């Protein structure tokens, strides 16, 4: 077992690991961007050089998993996600190099104000500190989050799906060994937890851990945020809608509805419900439903929709349907009286993820985009665009449906915060409150 | 009793008020900046015009409070804060006009990227939605937070200290009546809760309320964040330090130490502990302690400090002292072996609020400002500068010691979030994943 593995991780040792991670974070905050990037390139090389070792560990996990699949305790899809190969190794290394090439996220002057002669205030981006990340059994996650964390000067505590235990241990070992060439990077910059009990202990360490990113089901994310005082960045679910207005261009409407539903139905940014303006429903619905059905989509319809397109193959939509993230080739369709009903439906059932309107009416589009409360509000574009790479963020940590800190696809920004640096020359507040001196508040760099 | 007061506020009616606030927020999001500013000016005028009514209500509160003070159940200081007068009314109105004059916080393009021809992504500032604010018995808080909320397009649910019940009701009545002249502003944009039970109910409404700002003791803030899934913006406490390095200029050191402690000791940004480098302690301490004592400050000293300045008037500092926010004319002094011990002490006992270093050594200053994890890290300046008005933010909602969303003195930014607006022309993701089209990701406006 490699040196990084903590054999008997118990209450005190999780707390101890978190304390060591915090001490590591203090040292990471001092590294220059050039240094962090050099370390990332070294880690990328190590992944390639020790690819065979990583694949061997992955093979062990896959053998174990095969038995579980055979016993019906793991789906073949999950098994496929667990398995990696030489191309997977090359991609892991390439993604780490991509992160190294991203613009420097730390030390950015977000704002600067000369408060008075010789007294200047800087608002500067800086690392969060220690970030806990809990993720599914996918081999590529460790190099991905470890590189984002190092790029942003944060220490990470990781817990991956148990099915990938050997792969994860091999990857963390490769990562730590590569960074051991850099004496200024403490080994505790990355820590791997092993059990669910470790995670429970971690949730209590709000003095050491600054952010938790849980990846997984909505229930899992909710469980984490209910059992910890540590801030949580995550998304509960993606119940996304496409509202086809009466002023919609039909070709765009059909293309966007189809793409939003079928391009990758398991994604959180896939649409679950189509809302159709009643003025065009009778003419649009037959063509739309035929297209969906020929793509293998099961259609669940509200009574008005069913009345307009009578078909034994339409399933009546229940109340539950409107609140369900199918993550599958199923769609619910509702015919609405107009804008207000559409927006009201989205407010009631939407998950604040991504909402699209299809219309040629600029006024309707503007009103939709102002009124609808979601991380993404799209006009004449597929909901599937809601993604960090498509947005050009360079890397994606996840998608947040919360409104604070980071919203929507989260890139490096999600792992940084800022601090105010005030540089003076012996300045005291008394001299301002006495009227002896006055603030100038000259903006040197404005935030917006 | 005016129309806004909710006489029998119970479980269902708090939830109902929150739902109405949420509906109001949807309408507020559509108002232009000019409109919101006009409404603010109208509210400022109404405060002046109905000043006598507000003062009469305040007089009732003060009469009630006097009895309580007489019975020893309220301190004279709290009574003084509760009381207002004609000048107080004029100041309330002036502060509302100040908020109207601030730069527009909504609809700011924070970033823009052309993803492809005809497909542009905008990151735009927008309101949070519904904000719950719980505050102490001070008359000026209602116009202050109501104006910040309206400026940022948010609906607010307020609960003030019960001692100011009549004043608060009068102020909310004046505010609502003034805004009733603007039919586009829903009355539910501002709601006043009346009891602690109302607050408990509010904490459960995470589907309606986007942020809670509790103002009050550390215990109170902690209670709120432990009893709600709604994000909380607040500061627990302010245990701030001044570290006087061996390379400090003595005049600056004395001025900054004194100002940080005595300029307004009840403030959260006042210093509680002075850390003195051992190389200068023997020479600096006698003068420093004499200055503090002549200003009426009680000095609690670590053993090394006490040994250097033997005096029967020095109180020995206990372990508790290092973790205590005195909010009073008391200071603890510790002689430290150097930078590492100073930073270690701050990491252990500091509250991540504001930390200052006094030194002429630029390297020490830079290392202090990078390493110390606090909302404000100051070089050769008093900790008392940590304040929204002194920072030039124009308005201060409070000071956050959390690292997410908003940190340090929080201005209008704390009440806004952003959304991604994607404007396309029928664009689908399938055409990019098929290789038919490629992303351009041309930055039109970069965030940093």
Structural features, described:
The structure is a homodimer of 448-residue chains. Helix content of chain A is 42%, strand content 21%. Chain A has 448 residues and is an alpha/beta fold. Chain A has 2 domains: 11-104 and 126-226, Aldehyde Dehydrogenase, Chain A, domain 1; 240-385, Aldehyde Dehydrogenase, Chain A, domain 2, CATH 3.40.309. Chain A has a 7-stranded parallel beta sheet, sandwiched between helices. In chain A, strands 16-2-1-17 form a 4-stranded antiparallel beta sheet, with no helix packed on it. In chain A, α5 packs parallel to α6 (141-151). Residues 1-9 of chain A have low confidence and may be disordered. At the A-B interface, β1, β2, α10, α15 and β13 of A face β1, β2, α10, α15 and β13 of B. β13 (376-381) of chain A pairs parallel with β16 of chain B.
What is the overall shape of chain A?
globular
Q: Name the average pLDDT of chain A.
A: 93
CATH class of the largest domain in chain A: Alpha Beta
**CATH overall fold name of the largest domain in chain A:** Aldehyde Dehydrogenase, Chain A, domain 1
Radius of gyration of chain A: 25 Å
CATH superfamily of the largest domain in chain A: Aldehyde Dehydrogenase, Chain A, domain 1
């Amino acid at each position: 077992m490699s040196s990084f593995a903590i054999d008997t991780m118990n209450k005190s040792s999780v707390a101890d690991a978190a304390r060591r991670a915090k001490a590591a974070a203090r040292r990471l905050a001092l590294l220059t961007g050039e240094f962090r990037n050099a370390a990332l390139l070294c880690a990328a090389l190590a992944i390639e050089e020790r690819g065979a070792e990583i694949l061997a560990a992955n093979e062990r996990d896959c053998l174990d998993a095969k038995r579980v699949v055979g016993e019906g305790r793991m789906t073949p899809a999950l098994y496929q996600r667990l398995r990696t190969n030489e191309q997977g190794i090359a991609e892991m290394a390439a993604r780490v190099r991509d992160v190294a090439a991203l613009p420097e996220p730390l030390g950015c002057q977000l704002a600067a104000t000369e408060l008075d002669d010789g007294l200047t205030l800087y608002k500067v981006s800086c690392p969060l500190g220690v970030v806990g990340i809990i993720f599914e059994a996918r081999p590529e996650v460790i190099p991905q989050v470890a590189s984002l964390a190092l790029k942003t000067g944060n220490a990470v505590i990781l817990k991956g799906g148990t099915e990938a235990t050997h792969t994860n241990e091999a990857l963390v070992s490769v990562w730590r060994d590569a960074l051991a060439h850099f004496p200024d990077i403490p080994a505790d910059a990355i820590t791997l937890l092993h059990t669910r009990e470790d995670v429970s202990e971690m949730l209590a360490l709000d003095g050491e851990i600054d952010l938790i990113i849980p990846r997984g089901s909505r229930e899992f994310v909710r469980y984490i945020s209910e059992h910890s005082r540590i801030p949580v960045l995550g998304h509960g679910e993606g119940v996304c809608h496409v509202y086809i207005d009466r002023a919609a261009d039909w070709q765009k409407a059909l293309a966007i509805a189809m793409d939003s539903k079928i391009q990758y139905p398991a994604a959180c940014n896939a649409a679950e419900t189509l809302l159709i303006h009643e003025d065009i429903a009778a003419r649009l619905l037959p063509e739309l439903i035929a297209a969906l059905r020929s793509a293998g989509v099961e259609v669940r319809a509200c009574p008005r929709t069913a009345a307009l397109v009578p078909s034994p193959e339409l399933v009546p939509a229940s109340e539950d349907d409107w609140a369900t993230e199918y993550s599958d080739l199923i769609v619910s369709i509702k015919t609405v009286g107009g804008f207000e009903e559409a927006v009201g439906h989205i407010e009631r059932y939407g998950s604040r993820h991504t909402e699209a309107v299809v219309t040629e009416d600029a006024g309707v589009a503007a009103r939709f985009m102002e009124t609808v409360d979601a991380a993404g509000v799209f006009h004449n574009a597929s909901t599937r665009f809601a993604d960090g790479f498509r947005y050009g963020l360079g890397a994606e940590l996840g998608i947040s449906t919360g409104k604070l800190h980071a919203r929507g696809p989260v890139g490096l920004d999600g792992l940084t915060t800022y601090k105010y640096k005030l540089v003076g020359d012996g300045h005291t507040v008394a001299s301002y409150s006495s009227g002896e001196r006055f603030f100038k508040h000259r903006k040197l760099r404005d935030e917006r």
